[in-house]
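Feature request disguised as a bug report, sorry. It would help if multi-protein outputs had a clear separator. Right now it looks like this:
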Amino acid sequence: RLRTAQVMTRLCYNRRWSSHRVGHQKPSLLTPSFSAPSRSIFIQTQDTPNPNSLKFIPGRTVLESGTMDFSAPSTAFCSPLARQLFRIDGVKAVFFGPDFITITKADVNVEWKLLRPDIYATIMDFFSSGLPVLTDEAPRTDTAASDDDDEVVAMIKELLDTRIRPTVQEDGGDIIFKGFEDGIVKLKLQGSCTSCPSSIITLKSGIENMLQFYIPEVDGVEQVNDS
């Protein structure tokens, strides 16, 4: 059993929790072929380490498993919800976790109080519609072990899944394993981590130290930006 590494420390920051009860007060942004019952959804928001990203918690399952990252409207072909969120002026990126949605805004000068109402309404209308969050053709990315993994890669993936990703997801983001070559672990940051000012600190002071602590074969960690 893996023991907790003392070198892995989470960045501390003040979190402000807010909540918004959204009623069915405006026409649905979707046009489903059936009539959805009118009801309210209690949506909470949580700050992330990235001031340009905000975590929305609708109080229900968003994804059954894994995470999904949509960096631009063109990548949202497999998600009706992501497409609706991208229609909101000022939304730059959308990220889905198991029970949360992280929105990244395009303009740092635009205040969240101007974007929140449309985001609240879009999320509420979508879940009231009964439509699936993802369609069948949705590509999935995760760090699940496979039969083709060697011992070192399997250990890296286990650490990511059990020790690192849950912590990062609490902050509205995720980290995806992209490869291991010549002692370097290649990772892709998603969600609030993508443009977070503290992402380099997270990689080097947190993730790299933990992987090196447990796996001597790891020489370092490198961030990759490919899809």
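(second protein starts here, but nothing in the output says so)
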Amino acid sequence: MPAKNDGPAAAGPQSSKSEQTRALILETALRLFQERGYDKTTMRAIAKEAGVSVGNAYYYFDGKEHLIQGFYDRIAAAHQAAVREVLDRETELEARLAGVLTAWLDIATPYHEFAVQFFKNAADPDSPLSPFSPESEHAREQAISVHREVLAGSRSKVAPELREALPELMWLAQMGLVLYWVFDRTQGRERSYRLARRGARLTARGVALARFRVLRPLVLEVHELFTDFLPGMTKALPDPARERGD
């Protein structure tokens, strides 16, 4: 979630100082979450460690949940910047997707222990920390937009029935990778990197196969599955059964 004082009016030295204070509070919170755990860390403790008043901490963040949203936004922005090189260079879908997934793992590496600490909160479907929550929409849309760009810039031709749904499906696959990464205890999270590359290869092959007419009934069935169950997709895609007159 953007800072409360973000916007065109917040410019110049005052804005710079404001952003520094906001970043300090966020960095302090992430450190305390990792050291003490999310549940045991209070806004008062964060403010004290950051050297700001409690009121000042609440000026930038409404509560601990919004601090996590700030973390999500930071990761999403860093990821968008990190993937620029591979997306500008590669045109093969497998290489583009593998680059995007491994870039996320690179960026998230310093936060692995923190992710383990707060995973139980993010896994709660009713929690605002869930990646599927309304509060996480901004970071979620940033992440899905990266996958839209992965597809748009590749030479692979995508079956029309899947073109709109695939970016969100690819993001869901990335969430599966994140879950695996949280529990990965191999040196350097080596298995997570292998999973990212093999998952990218499988996705690219699936996209290529989906273009064959003999697989069209299966593609339509998969499309129905996406439409019915992917978050938000029921409003974005037409009902394929209705289109066929079933």
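Even a blank line would do. Unrelated, but nice: The two ends are 43 Å apart (CA to CA).
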